Amino acid sequence: MTIELTMLVYSVALLVIVIAVQATAGILAQGLAAMAGSRDNLGEPSQFQERSKRVAENHKEGLLLFAPLVLIAAVAGISTELTVLGAQLFFSSRVAHAIIYFAGWPWIRPVAWAVGFVGTLMILFALL
Known about the structure:
This protein is mainly alpha-helical and about 130 residues long. It contains five helices and no strands. Helix 3 (about 45-75) runs parallel beside helix 5 (about 110-125). It is elongated.
């Protein structure tokens, strides 16, 4: 398996972890019964519950761009220094982004996001 595909697998695993944190935050804020129900009349979400939802949505958006490019590169047999570095940047920045976002640290979160976006663009440019 190429490094790019490995980074994709790791990125999906990270999404699983982020979703687990989001679900746990919901249970802690709303209670298990409320979260297991229809969720029509939930109470006000906690700040961390809202933040964890944004982390998950943001990571899904990043994967929506990253995953197809990695899969296209794999099918086309393209694996270069640019695609490898791009995939590594994407994954490492997504780990940093999730930690920074969960922690609520201001200003540095957009930098982590931008590094991941640059990694995705590197793969895109290698395919064009």
